[in-house]
């Protein structure tokens, strides 16, 4: 199922009250970045027919994982209805700790579903970021 992710992202953000002047030109063929002031950027990537939401939540360091493992594990164990497999994943990539979510197909059916998944990811991103402090 082909999804014009750029149009879906734009519609979802506008529907949730985002100022149109803050939205640049999104491209469905490359990763879309949503930048914020107080939390890490949220990235939206397409791979085949799959859509990933992800964020670089910290520079990867073993000491951070050792100190924050309980809080991170607690967050990982809490499910999310919009993610395949029901749970977030954490991975090291290019010296960063990344929070990732592979969206279920129903999230891509319309702007309301996508906005709900994006809001859920944003809320959990805040919690994962807090768990690293």
UniProtKB/TrEMBL annotation:
Which CDD domains does the UniProt entry name for this protein?
T3SC_IB_Spa15-like (cd17035)
UniProt xrefs under InterPro entries: Invas_SpaK
Pfam families tied to this protein: Invas_SpaK
Any idea what this protein is called?
Answer: Type III secretion system chaperone SpaK
Q: Which organism is it from?
A: Candidatus Sodalis pierantonii str. SOPE
Report the gene name.
invB
């Amino acid at each position: 199922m082909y999804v014009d992710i750029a149009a879906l992202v734009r519609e979802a953000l506008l529907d949730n009250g985002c100022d149109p002047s803050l939205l640049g030109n999104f491209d469905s063929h490359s990763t879309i970045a949503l930048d914020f002031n107080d939390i890490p950027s949220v990235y939206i990537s397409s791979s085949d027919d799959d859509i990933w939401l992800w964020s670089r939540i910290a520079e990867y360091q073993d000491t951070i994982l050792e100190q924050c493992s309980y809080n991170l594990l607690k967050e990982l164990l809490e499910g999310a209805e919009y993610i395949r497999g029901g749970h977030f994943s954490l991975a090291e990539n290019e010296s960063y700790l990344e929070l990732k979510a592979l969206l279920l197909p129903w999230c891509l059916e319309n702007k309301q579903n996508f906005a709900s998944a994006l809001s859920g990811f944003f809320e959990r991103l805040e919690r994962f970021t807090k768990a690293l402090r």
